[in-house]
């Protein structure tokens, strides 16, 4: 079935069609949640919240954007909600960060070096303003085009480009300071 047929079946209450449709995009949505929350446990919570919200609100999907973009928006919002709840209940210094969550493909480096680098990247991402962090995560980890990110953040493409540029600059500065 193509995406339109799956959506029609989903709107008719077919849970198997929804599972197939979401299955096509689940990995990318999970990576978005992981990069925003910073750990696998919170990412799983956020993804479950996102999938539940997507099923419950499928009737609101108008088809103006791709389903993938719509699901990423829900996943991003769910991940941000988890982060906000976590900030209320625990300090960032005490946060459980049991998983680096970023696939650093430099396999020539030692394991310890990759873990340190992943921790530094997570810390640097956590220091970014929320709008910058969401933009860079959607661009780099979800591979969304600028137009989709702009739609998600309800800003212009130029604003998205600026946010991503500034996020990269701040990440580079944070990572340089961490390695100094």
Notes on the protein architecture:
The protein has 180 residues and is an all-alpha fold. It has 2 domains: 1-94, RNA polymerase sigma factor, region 2, helix turn helix motif (Rna Polymerase Sigma Factor, Chain: A, Orthogonal Bundle), CATH 1.10.1740.10; 108-179, Arc Repressor Mutant, subunit A. The protein is 72% helix and 0% strand. The protein is built from 9 helices and no strands. It has helices spanning 3-11, 15-23, 26-37, 40-56, 67-89, 111-127, 130-140, 146-153, 157-179. Helix 7 (130-140) packs across helix 9. The protein is globular. It starts with a helix and ends with a helix.
Attribute tags:
single chain, 180 residues, mainly alpha, Rna Polymerase Sigma Factor, Chain: A, Arc Repressor Mutant, subunit A, 2 domains, 9 helices, 72% helix, 0% strand, globular, transcription, DNA-binding, DNA binding
């Amino acid at each position: 079935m193509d995406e339109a047929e799956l959506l029609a079946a989903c709107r008719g209450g077919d849970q198997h069609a929804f599972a197939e449709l979401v299955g096509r995009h689940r990995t990318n949505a999970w990576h978005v949640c992981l990069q925003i929350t910073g750990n696998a446990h919170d990412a799983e919570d956020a993804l479950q919240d996102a999938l539940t919200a997507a099923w419950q609100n499928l009737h609101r999907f108008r088809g103006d954007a791709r389903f993938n973009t719509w699901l990423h928006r829900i996943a991003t919002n769910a991940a941000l909600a988890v982060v906000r709840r976590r900030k209320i209940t625990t300090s960032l210094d005490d946060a459980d960060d049991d998983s680096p969550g970023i696939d650093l493909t430099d396999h020539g480096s030692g394991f310890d070096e990759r873990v340190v680098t992943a921790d530094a990247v997570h810390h640097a991402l956590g220091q970014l303003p929320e709008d910058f962090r969401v933009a860079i995560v959607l661009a780099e980890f979800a591979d969304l085009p600028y137009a989709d990110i702009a739609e998600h953040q309800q800003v212009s493409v130029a604003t998205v480009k600026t946010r991503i540029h500034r996020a990269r600059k701040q990440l580079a500065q944070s990572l340089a300071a961490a390695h100094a």
